[in-house]
Amino acid sequence: MSLPSTACEVVATGLDHPECVAVGPDGVLYCGGEGGQIFRVEAGGGAAVEIANVGGECGGIALDGDGNLYECNMTKVVNRISPAGAVEVYSGGTAELPMTVPNYPVFDDAGNLFVSDSGDWELCNGRIYVVRPSGETELAFPDYLAFPNGMALDRERGWLYVAQSSVRNVVRLRLRDGKLEGRPEIYASLPAYAVPDGLALAAAGNLYVSYYEPSVILVVKPDRSFEVLIEGAVHGLFNRPTNVAFAPTPGTLYYANYGGHELGALPVAEPGMALAYPVLGRS
After folding, report:
1. How would residue 34 be classed by pLDDT, with cut points 50, 70 and 90?
2. What is the pLDDT of residue 45?
3. Cα–Cα 20 to 30 A to 249, which of 110, 272, 274, 275?
4. Distance between CA atoms of 47 and 58, rounded to whole angstroms?
């Protein structure tokens, strides 16, 4: 049985159509807005504070162990934002293949930042980059993915999960020693009407998939079966939950309410897979 809309809790409002939400190791929430705003929300919810403006529309975000935030931006770069709000370009791709639609970043334990680059909606030309701790960018996976979007890393089992929005599935790639190996394996084929956007992995292996359209969060189990966690748009409460992220302590799943101006939270009965917050040693 799926959760009722009354299970949704608004933890922050007054945002500009947040596309993504990320959680730091201290439980502090971060999200970006359509106008390039970077917002910070204290653990548990409260007033959203704009800490920087990067220009362009914000996509996915990730954090390192020093509190720096890495933001995929529609200006075709990944920005790095310091805790004080200073902004610098962290990567724009490689000299031969600049980024086109950087969408979502994920750190591994070694400090490698994997970035999905969605490409064109109607073409299978999406790819994945990796930015090494040294700052060097490499092509991690070539351009034949179908609008790769949100990602989630299974740090224990060595899989990188990737939502392919335009073909409505989730694939996974083997990750070893900072490199993606082999061909993508179709992990879950989703309903034909779905546009999967964000992913969050639970410690036990359940994969939470949030949809741009319709307003649904789905749970894909390790046996590849799935069930609906919650569905049905509610204005100002649950509307196009594009990305999801687990709280550091068990019991809460945050979602970005792209169809409105809120960050929301849902009760879940399991903890998330612990994220990597590497210390890169770069100022």
Report:
1. very high
2. 85
3. 110
4. 20
Q: How far is CA 155 from the centre of its chain?
A: 16
Strand order in the sheet with 226-231: 195-201, 207-213, 216-220, 226-231
**How far is 185 from 172, CA to CA, in rounded Å?**
5
Cβ-in-10-Å burial (0-12, 13-18, 19+) of 97 comes to middle
Distance between CA atoms of residues 123 and 262, nearest Å? 32
- Cβ-count burial of 65 within 10 angstroms (0-12 exposed, 13-18 middle, 19+ buried)? middle
Rounded Cα gap, residues 33 and 38, in angstroms: 7
Of 273, 283, 260, 281, give the one whose Cα is nearest residue 13: 260
Per the CB < 8 A criterion, the answer to whether 80 and 90 are in contact is yes
Integer angstrom CA distances of residue 100 from 188, 223, 236: 26, 35, 32
Q: Domains in the chain and their CATH numbers? A: 5-267 (2.120.10.30)
273's tokens: 């897979």
How far, in Å, CA of 14 to CA of 16, rounded? 7
Both tokens assigned to 186: 């179709």
Is residue 246 within 8 Å of residue 23, measured between CB atoms? yes
Return the number of other C-beta atoms located less than 10 Å from residue 88's C-beta.
11
Task: Please state, in angstroms and rounded to a whole number, the distance separating the CA atoms of residues 279 and 282.
Answer: 8
